[in-house]
Specification:
Elements (H helix, E strand, L loop, with lengths): L43 E5 L4 H12 L3 E6 L7 H4 L6 H9 L5 E5 L5 H15 L4 E4 L14 H26 L5 E6 L12 H20 L5 E7 L3 E2 L2 H5 L8 E2 L2 H11 L10 E3 H7 L20 H4 L8
Parallel strand pairs: 1-2, 1-4, 2-3, 4-5, 5-6, 6-9, 7-8
């Protein structure tokens, strides 16, 4: 691999209704902005939750740059999971779209909560490709409800998929990533910037837990040059979940491609130097030189910073 890196960095430090790992969806077309892209030829990324939405957008964007993809999730053509829940997209469909871009893909049915399932998936990916150097923890469950309205089973789902899933998948990859070059653990989760979230306590806490695991790994793997970072959108992203839960309107949403471009921008950097960061998409891309964000928007105007304010109620865009 011969990535084009930007070593100067100035970053500061969502989702599915009946959600299980990877149940994201998008109805918006992918757009492409003008920042330089990394050369990911020879790389392989293991991405959780690639059947729809953000995870699928990341998978296709990395594939465009030459990266092989391990497409994982629970919705597969080999089961009735998606049909039973009226979910579009499968791990196999994403894999076919990845392969159409000229790289190799491996679809793997996966429950990120199941340690044996995860370890088998990691072994299969490594056996197939020989090396996996990028792990992206994207799969999440969502249930944005007040404490009084959230059952214990739903609480367990949120913590199981989001926190346990990130821990189990990351842990399964540690030994392998310690022995490869250009190694990354990137997680779709917000900055740890709040001690409360009225109306969505369990969901927000579980997403913060994903960040806590990832940022702790940044220190634990510092001597191994594994870049461990989190990324989070400033605005809500157009997915099946934002529509299902009525999280604003199209005026508030952006295309998932802004998140995919954020991941690509992170992968331009040196993992030995760019680690331990929680980045907002807008801020990282603006720092890289992007001045115009309108192509990401579903409607004219800048969407409200809804996602950033989930963890920082006073968040304002830098002037």
């Amino acid at each position: 691999m011969n990535p084009s890196r930007a070593t100067d960095s100035d970053p500061r430090r969502p989702i599915d209704p009946r959600s299980e790992p990877g149940d994201y969806a998008t109805v918006a077309p992918v757009v492409s902005m003008t920042l330089p892209k990394p050369d990911l030829s020879g790389s392989t990324a293991f991405i959780t939750g690639t059947t729809r939405g953000i995870g699928k957008a990341i998978a296709l964007s990395l594939a465009e740059q030459g990266c092989n993809i391990v497409s994982t999730g629970k919705t597969s053509e080999a089961n009735d999971y998606g049909e039973d829940r009226d979910l579009e997209g499968t791990i196999e469909q994403t894999a076919r779209e990845v392969e159409a871009k000229g790289v190799e893909a491996l679809p793997v049915e996966l429950d990120v909560r199941d340690e044996e399932d995860v370890e088998a998936a990691v072994d299969r990916a490594v056996d197939h490709f020989g090396e996996v150097n990028i792990l992206i923890n994207n799969a999440s469950a969502i249930q944005p409800r007040p404490v009084a309205d959230l059952s214990a089973d739903r609480f367990d789902l949120l913590t199981g998929v989001n926190v346990r899933g990130t821990h189990v998948v990351s842990r399964a990859f540690i030994d392998h990533l310690q022995g490869v070059d250009d190694a990354w653990i990137l997680t779709n989760a917000p900055p740890v910037a709040t001690d409360r979230a009225p109306g969505s306590a369990a969901y927000t806490w579980s997403k913060l837990g994903m960040s806590f695991v990832t940022l702790s790994l940044a220190d634990e793997l510092a001597d191994d040059d594994v870049g461990c970072n989190t990324f989070w959108p400033v605005t809500a992203i157009d997915t099946r979940a934002t529509r299902y839960f009525g999280m604003g309107t199209e005026d508030d949403w952006r295309h998932p491609s802004i998140v995919a471009d954020t991941v690509l921008e992170m992968l331009r950097r040196d993992p030995a130097e760019f680690t331990g960061n929680s980045v907002y998409d807008e801020e990282l891309l603006r720092g890289a030189g992007l001045e115009e964000f309108s192509e990401y928007n579903l409607t004219p105007g800048d969407p409200r910073p809804m996602s950033a304010r989930m963890v920082d109620e006073d968040y304002e865009r830098p002037s």
